[in-house]
């Protein structure tokens, strides 16, 4: 998961994060405001964090898991220099 947290005390339930997420990771719920529904689909694009007017969302600067080798190109080392 790359969204580290949604601080319920700071969240004003404006739903801007839900609207801007290109992967539909976040969903609005009736009881708890915003919920992380599909955490593995998060691409760490930071759009939700940037759109949040109250600073309630914190996104990790890296993926919390290694991407599988679906396309035969090998996993990418997140700390590797891309030269």
Q: Key terms for this structure?
A:
12% helix; alpha+beta; 83 residues; Alpha-Beta Plaits; two-stranded antiparallel ribbon; disordered C terminus; single chain; globular; 2 helices
Describe the protein in words.
It is built from 2 helices and 4 strands; from the N terminus they run βαββαβ. It is α+β, with helices and mostly antiparallel strands and 83 residues long. It has a two-stranded antiparallel ribbon with strand order 1-4. Strand 2 and strand 3 form a beta hairpin. The two termini are 27 Å apart. Mean pLDDT is 78; it is low at 73-83.
What's the quick description here?
This protein is an alpha+beta fold and 83 residues long. The chain is 12% helix and 18% strand.
Number of separate strands: 4
Terminal Cα span: 27 Å
Question: Multimeric state of these chains?
Answer: single chain
The SS-based structural class is alpha+beta
What percent strand?
15-25%
Largest sheet: 2 strands, antiparallel
Strand arrangement within the widest β-sheet reads: 1-4
Contiguous uncertain segments of 5+ residues: 73-83
What value does the average pLDDT take? 78
List strands and helices in order, with pairings:
Elements: E1 3-6, H1 16-20, E2 26-29, E3 33-36, H2 47-51, E4 57-59
Antiparallel strand pairs: 1-4, 2-3
């Amino acid at each position: 998961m790359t969204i580290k947290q949604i601080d319920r005390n700071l969240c004003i339930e404006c739903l801007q994060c839900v609207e801007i997420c290109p992967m539909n990771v976040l969903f609005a719920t009736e009881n708890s405001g915003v919920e992380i529904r599909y955490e593995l689909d998060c691409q760490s694009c930071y759009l939700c964090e940037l759109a949040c007017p109250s600073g309630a969302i914190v996104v990790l600067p890296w993926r919390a898991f290694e991407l599988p080798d679906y396309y035969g190109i090998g996993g990418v080392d997140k700390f590797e220099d891309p030269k």
